[in-house]
């Protein structure tokens, strides 16, 4: 997958001959909010107050673990984007799978129907992560899962916004520029979308952002 794109218009291309698979490969950007935010509310509520199948761990423990869940998502976001989405397979099958998973996004970066994760992928993954957290982190699993899913929804929303919204705030302008330069300048850096945190940790911050960060940190204050 190169850094060049096929089309920079908001247009799409057919991926599957099967009409059902093709239909579910497209998704409205608001869908993750509608589908997943209720689960965030339910798991956080259950973690704080308890319920028939959820154990209460109290308010402050729930809030703290929720924040850890958001942080955990940011790492998973970085790891998947860098080490899975930007893997460079050599087999024909690997190249085909890679194109379906992420290559198409770089070829058609403004395709508004394929900017957030399809439910056929995100829902099974959500169940898998819930089961994993329940097995490893009970009784804190519900708050952890709530924060993790909140982080995912924030990521999907920010990702869509970087491609289609002006994002005029200081943070918004930075995130938009950061991700756009990943697409159009250097796809081997800037793997974080919702935050550049793990790019700093793993030293994949692009040169322009490092230079700007260094300039800002050395600027005199009055």
List the helices and strands and how they pair.
Layout: H1 19-24, H2 31-49, H3 59-85, H4 92-107, H5 119-137, H6 141-164, H7 170-184, H8 197-201, H9 207-218
Structure, described:
By secondary structure, this protein is mostly helical. It has a domain at 19-172. Helix content is 64%, strand content 0%. It contains nine helices and no strands. It has helices at 19-24, 31-49, 59-85, 92-107, 119-137, 141-164, 170-184, 197-201, 207-218. The chain is globular. The model has no long low-confidence stretch (mean pLDDT 93).
Descriptive key words:
single chain; 222 residues; mainly alpha; 9 helices
Molecular shape: globular
What fraction strand?
A: under 5%
Distance between the termini: 47 Å
Alpha plus pi helix count:
9
* Uncertain runs: none
Based on DSSP secondary structure assignment, what is the total number of beta strands? 0
Helix content: 55-70%
What series of H and E elements makes up the topology? HHHHHHHHH
- Write down the Rg: 19 Å
- Please state the average pLDDT score: 93
Structural class designation:
mainly alpha
């Amino acid at each position: 997958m190169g850094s060049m794109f096929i089309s920079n218009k908001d247009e799409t291309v057919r991926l599957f001959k099967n009409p059902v698979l093709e239909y579910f490969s497209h998704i409205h950007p608001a869908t993750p909010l509608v589908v997943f935010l209720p689960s965030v509310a339910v798991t956080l509520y259950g973690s704080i107050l308890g319920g028939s199948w959820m154990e209460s761990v109290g308010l402050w423990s729930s809030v703290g673990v929720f924040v850890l869940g958001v942080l955990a998502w940011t790492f998973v976001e970085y790891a998947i984007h860098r080490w899975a989405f930007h893997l460079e397979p050599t087999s024909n099958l690997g190249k085909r799978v890679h194109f379906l998973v992420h290559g198409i996004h770089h070829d058609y970066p403004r395709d508004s129907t394929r900017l957030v994760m399809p439910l056929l992928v995100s829902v099974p993954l959500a169940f898998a992560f819930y089961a994993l957290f329940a097995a490893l982190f009970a009784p804190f699993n519900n708050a952890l899962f709530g924060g993790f899913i909140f982080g995912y929804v924030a990521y999907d929303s920010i990702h869509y916004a970087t491609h289609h919204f002006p994002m005029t705030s200081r943070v918004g302008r930075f995130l938009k520029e950061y991700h756009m330069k990943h697409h159009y300048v250097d796809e081997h850096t800037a793997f974080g979308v919702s935050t550049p945190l793990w790019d700093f940790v793993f030293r994949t911050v692009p040169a322009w952002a490092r230079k700007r960060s260094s300039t800002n940190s050395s600027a005199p204050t009055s």
